[in-house]
Amino acid sequence: MEFKFPDLGEGLVEGEVIKWHVKEGDFVKEGDPLVDVMTEKATVTLPAPTTGRVVKILVREGEVVKVGQTLCVIEPAEGPAAGPQTEAPARPREVAAMPAARRLAKELGIDLSKVKGTGPGGVITVEDVKRYAEETAKATAPAPAPKAVEKAEEAEVVPVRGIRRAVAEKMSKAKRLIPHAYHLEEVDFTELIKLRERVKAEAEKRGIRLTLLPFIAKAVAMALREYPMLNSEYDEEKNAIVVKKEVNLGIGVDTEQGLVVVVVKNADKKGLLEMAKEINELAQKAREGKLELQDVRGSTFTISNIGAVGGLGGLSILNYPEAGILAVGQARKKPWAVGDRIEIRDIALLAVSFDHRVVDGAYVARFMNRVKELLENPWLLLL
């Protein structure tokens, strides 16, 4: 049977094959891990759909596969599979080649089906593989560089794969299709930092690491309830704005593989400690590469906490197809007017990027005024 890349929902149309857990000739049971595929949402492990032997792998690691495209061919076993004694007999290989020739071809990355065999009965020999490799190298050899640049140092070419490829494609799509506009606001985090310090010990007793991010997420979720047009997306086909009923916050997580956006569902209905616990758990799963599809799907507004790494702030690209994203800069001590006095306060730059088809600047300014009010008077978050 042909095992095809399934439709995983969320509008996903393709994925990149990251890792095969089997090789041709292996026997698998239904439900065994078969292949890891990276989509723009997460890395998903696809299980074997049936019990049998993998006779052909059609998509290599690093290649992009479309929904409905065949990943591999599995020869179903006859009867129940309880162990080696019930394994289906191996299918004869389609290409006849000597073992040493197979090993060499594998090392050189050569497809044996393209090599002409000169051995008995057309069997491919080691010499056939070497000859094919030499001919291919000559045919694909680049033209010699002009003498003027012969001594120039070669640049490193880094393949764009996995999460980096998914991010690149999604960001390009967002910037290409959405007319971005921006609103910046400085927010006094002084009282917020004091409150966090007062409740941090209580959170630690419950095994929760409490940062400023859950407070910011709570403030944004509350403000989105009051300004729902930012909790929406623009439907190009229907030429309509789709306002979401649930407030599902996307949280940007910096991992070794790249940026991953995890999703806190129904964030407006969660308390601070519950919010903190869920963000911590999702971030840990992201860094360990253990996210499931439900952990990264369904976000309606995203927060990018740039300040956790450092920097005054930035203007983020929208997380397509959402209408808004908030970039939070690092809180820094600076002179600040408090009434008629000048005090040293902890000030952070917050920047909202928004879809100008959905909302105008005045609407976003009011939204940010509410976020600012909640963060500068953080006890309001506890009501």
From TrEMBL:
CDD domains: lipoyl_domain. Its cofactor is (R)-lipoate. Pfam families: 2-oxoacid_dh, Biotin_lipoyl, E3_binding. InterPro entries: 2-oxoA_DH_lipoyl-BS (IPR003016), 2-oxoacid_DH_actylTfrase (IPR001078), 2-oxoacid_DH_E2_comp (IPR050743), Biotin_lipoyl (IPR000089), CAT-like_dom_sf (IPR023213), E3-bd_dom_sf (IPR036625), PSBD (IPR004167), Single_hybrid_motif (IPR011053). It comes from the Archaea. GO terms for molecular function: acetyltransferase activity; lipoic acid binding. Residues 96-133 form the Peripheral subunit-binding (PSBD) domain. One of its GO terms (cellular component) is cytoplasm. Residues 1-75 form the Lipoyl-binding domain. Keywords: Acyltransferase, Lipoyl, Transferase. Belongs to the 2-oxoacid dehydrogenase family. This is 2-oxo acid dehydrogenase subunit E2. It comes from Pyrobaculum aerophilum.
